[in-house]
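We were asked to recover a plausible sequence for a given structure. The inputs and outputs are reproduced exactly as logged, with field labels preserved.

PROBLEM: sequence recovery
POSITIONS: 158
GIVEN STRUCTURE:
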């Protein structure tokens, strides 16, 4: 089959529960007709290079990539149960995770895109929550940035 476009809304995101390692919790899912919270995501790479220019480079800059980083940004809406005040389980874990420091600030993150047989797993990642708010006729916004620490792995999606 030839490559084809797929819906961004079908991408899935999960955070590992730091209280129950090995347990994965969906982040603001919207599958099955439920109200989802994530409506935009972007995955990016960060590169750090070193200058390898010498006199023999004849005035032409030379460099090499020395470090590769990966970042995922999730944006959308804050999901809250109106009767209990409880946040979406994934958003609540992210909010709690952002308060942890040092080694404890690292927890697993994974995502899956349609057509993939495996989750891409970031076994160690840290989270930063963005500003929350909105205007008179808005739903309350929510966002987070996930930064990988160390290499990625994969695991089968079952």
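RECOVERED SEQUENCE:
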């Amino acid at each position: 089959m030839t490559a084809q476009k797929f819906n961004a809304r079908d991408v899935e995101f999960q955070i590992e529960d730091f209280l129950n390692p090995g347990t994965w919790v969906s982040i603001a899912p919207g599958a099955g007709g439920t109200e989802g919270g994530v409506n935009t995501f972007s995955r990016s790479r960060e590169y750090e290079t070193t200058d390898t220019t010498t006199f023999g480079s004849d005035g032409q800059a030379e460099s090499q990539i020395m470090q590769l980083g990966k970042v995922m940004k999730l944006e959308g809406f804050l999901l809250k149960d109106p009767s209990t005040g409880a946040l979406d389980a994934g958003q609540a874990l992210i909010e709690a995770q952002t308060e942890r420091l040092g080694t404890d600030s690292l927890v697993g993150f994974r995502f899956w895109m349609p057509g993939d047989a495996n989750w891409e797993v970031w076994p160690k990642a840290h989270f930063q929550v963005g500003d929350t708010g909105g205007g008179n006729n808005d739903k309350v916004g929510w966002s987070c940035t996930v930064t990988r620490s160390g290499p990625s792995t994969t695991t089968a999606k079952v």
